[in-house]
Design a protein that fits this description.
47% of the residues lie in helices and 28% in strands. With 127 residues, it is an alpha+beta fold. It has one domain: 2-Layer Sandwich (TATA-Binding Protein), CATH 3.30.310. Strand 4 and strand 5 form a beta hairpin. Helix 1 crosses helix 5 and helix 4 packs antiparallel against helix 5. The longest helix has 21 residues. It is globular, with a radius of gyration of 15 Å.
Length: 127
């Protein structure tokens, strides 16, 4: 269900490289949630770093939404760059497995597979 790779890069460099990889593969970064910074700004002692990238390919999103509008709740895709015990990691939840839990439509499975293949390329490129 998860695809997670470990990187030798710093958290900051992996985040920068993921941003570039997303754009290189025809997706856009809609927003980056800095969860570590947000938690610390709320007075919570949190030692790890975590950036959650919301990424989207408009053509693929339109295919999903035109098939089942309820799936807007599963969009956009998310890729995280985070630290865990001193290691930088990049990961995602499988779009194929997530959408298959929400819909049995074969057309959506094909779209999810195409998206997942691209997102894994992005992660591997940023690693």
């Amino acid at each position: 269900m998860y695809y997670i790779v470990e990187s030798d890069k710093t958290f900051e460099q992996a985040s920068t490289d993921l941003d570039a990889a997303v754009k290189h593969h025809g997706f856009g970064v809609l927003h980056v949630h800095g969860l570590g910074n947000t938690l610390r700004s709320k007075g919570i002692a949190f030692a790890e770093e975590c950036n959650v990238f919301e990424v989207c390919n408009p053509a693929q999103a339109a295919k999903v939404l035109s098939t089942d509008m309820r799936l807007n709740m599963a969009l956009p895709c998310r890729i995280s760059v985070y630290t865990e015990k001193g290691k930088t990691k990049i990961g995602l939840i499988s779009p194929v497995q997530m959408l298959s839990a929400l819909s049995q439509d074969p057309a959506l499975t094909r779209v999810a597979k195409e998206v997942e293949e691209k997102i894994i390329l992005m992660v591997d490129e940023a690693k």
